[in-house]
Amino acid sequence: MPKKLYNEPSPLETRVLSARFGLENSESLATYVANDGFKAFRKAREMKPEQIIEEVKTSALRGRGGAGFPTGLKWSFVPRSSPKPKYIVVNADESEPGTCKDRLLMEYDPHQMIEGILIAGLAMDSHKGYIYIRGEYRYLIDHMDRAIAEAYAQGYLGKNILGTGFDFDLYTHSGAGAYECGEETALLDSLEGKRGIPRMKPPFPAVAGVWACPTLLNNVETFSAIPVIIRDGGAAFAALGTPKNGGTRLLCISGHVNKPGVYEVPLGYPMLKFIEEIAGGIPGGKKLKAVVPGGSSCPILKADECDIPMDYDSLAKIGSMLGSGGMVVMDETTDMVKVALRIMRFYAHESCGWCIPCREGTTWLRKILQRFDDGGGRHEDVALLGELSKNMLGRTFCALGDAAAMPTISIVDKFADDFEKRLAAREMVAV
Amino acid sequence: MTFSPKLEEKFAKMLQAYPEGRKRSAVVPMLIYAQDEVGAVTPELIDEVARRCEVPPLQVDEVVGYYSMLHRKPMGKYHVQVCTNISCLLVGGMELYEHASKKLGIGHKQVTSDGQFSLEEVECMGACSWAPAVEINYDFYHHITPEKLDQLIDGLRKAH
What one-character DSSP code corresponds to residue A259? Predict the structure, then answer.
């Protein structure tokens, strides 16, 4: 049975990673193999590990989890000649607000990701991998367990894979509800059975990751991009995007649009065209007010900043990020005080408490924003919110502190009017 | 403490997944799967998981408070989780949560007196493009309106 897709695909998409979405039994190994599956693994088996890594470097693939770090470079950091065992860990802890793409990659095409993991195993001389999936995605843990069992049964996992002499074991690992565990070092602590607290870096996970062994950690979408890169070549993948921003990526669009959904487009796709033509524009002919470009941690954009190509560097140039691909569109009726408050409630809830600037900062920002929303705001609060946020930047072990501060700084800076309006309305009542 | 044969089989496999001497890694997954069967993370369950993972009970106890899906008291048979994070907020998630609260007569992390339902305002559950979203136990429901939520809850009540 063809699986019902969560949203209608758009004819404007470039479907590379999602090419098999919607095929009959798309999640089965048979469908995968019948549609180019495991060609890349066979090819990689004939390549030297350095050649595999070089191909990934050529592809200009950058991490799809949020930070956008060049994947090939990350791969080259893992000391493959280390006498310690090397591990592959998949970050499937998708929890950045606005992001819902890894779900689809695992649901519709689990074997694509498995093949990507195996190729990474070849390149790292690693023989064991873990897929860390957020606890809320239980149906996907079960789904991946079935896919893994199918791969074992048909010789695509386990001992002597496809007669190549290469062994690899793969397991799922359930989280239990913690945004912080999407941060790679916190994820590793969680994988070790502890509270997910970020670690001091260096050493980076490539050198000392899970159980102090070299560990390659990438996002679901990053691993899912590997088979096509090896199959068709890094250069072909790179050519889909823009310089230093290779390939396509799955963008999740939500909020005030007519056709919210997950769509695959090349890096550098124009943001306004994406909103208007792929996502069907804003309902009721309302005007665009703001866009969260890549998950709630990204500095928010005003409407007049949105006429840009969506690649990592273009977003960085205007002081924001492409992040995890979670794009949230807000129309002119959106109250930015409420948006800032909801974002901060999230970070205050998710701060693991390890670093004081983050734990205390998010708590006080939440309190000030709550007071403001409840009608008790003061003129000086706007500056105070900005100042408090800026004091969190760069002062924490992991990026959660920055992730809470950056959207807040951008909202009070770019949408101060919304705060002023609240104050003016109250003064009018008082008079 | 023993669990259902199916869960025992899962745990036996789970403990094999980690390298020699690293059974502590099974603590979190074991807790959440066991909680589903036992109903809550009880002191007995903590001791049992500690025994199986070969760690002191304190090392199990200390993770319970960290993970939002683990709870020491039982939730309802149907745990209704309504997302009010940003994508859901923009399309009625907050109103949906308030509606659920009124309909069930309970607030955040409370349980109905018959133990059938509990409610939680949750953070992003990864259903942003199909918002507003609700998860009941482990089942996702997308594009939920107050009317659809009523139907869902009434349906579960009848099924009981």
Answer: S
Spatial separation of the C-alpha atoms in residues A261 and B97, rounded to whole Å: 22
Residues 6+ apart with CB under 8 A from A196: A178, A180, A181, A183, A186, A187, A189, A190, A352, B66
Residues A331 and A325: their CA atoms lie apart, in Å, by 19
Residue bearing tokens 């079935």: A146
- C-alpha distance from A234 to closest chain B C-alpha (Å): 30
Q: Which residues of B touch A254 (CB under 8 A)?
A: 87, 90-91, 128-129, 131
Nearest C-alpha in B relative to A334? B90
pLDDT for position A215 = 98
Q: Do B138 and A130 touch (CB under 8 A)?
A: no
H or E stretch at A413 = helix A400-414
In Å, how far are A178, A257, A272, A276, A279 from A285, measured between CA atoms? Answer: 38, 10, 15, 11, 14
Q: Give pLDDT tens digits for A50-78.
A: 999 999 999 999 999 999 999 999 999 99
Q: Which CATH superfamily is domain B78-159 in?
A: Glutaredoxin (3.40.30.10)
Contact between B130 and A100 using a beta-carbon 8 Å cutoff: yes
| Domain extent listing, chain B | 5-64, 78-159
What is the average per-residue pLDDT within A1-11?
80
> What is the rounded (10 degree) CA torsion for A352, A355, A361, A363?
30
Q: From A134, which residue of chain B is nearest by alpha-carbon distance?
A: B125
Confidence (pLDDT) at A3 = 63
Q: Is B37 on the interface with A (CB under 8 A)?
A: no
Task: Sheet containing B78-83: give its strands across.
Answer: B117-122, B78-83, B134-136, B139-141
Cis peptide before A11 (omega within 30 of 0): no
B115 close to B109: Cβ distance less than 8 angstroms: no
Angstrom distance (rounded) from CA A235 to CA A256:
37
Give domain A29-240's CATH number out of 3.40.50.11540, 3.40.50.300, 3.40.50.150, 3.50.50.60: 3.40.50.11540
Which residues are CB-neighbours of A391 under 8 A, at least 6 positions away?
A: A357, A361
Residue ranges with strand state E in A372-415: none
* Overall average pLDDT of the A308-319 stretch: 96
The ipTM, to two decimals, is 0.98
* CATH 3.40.50 corresponds to the domain B5-64: no
Q: What is the pLDDT of residue B67?
A: 97
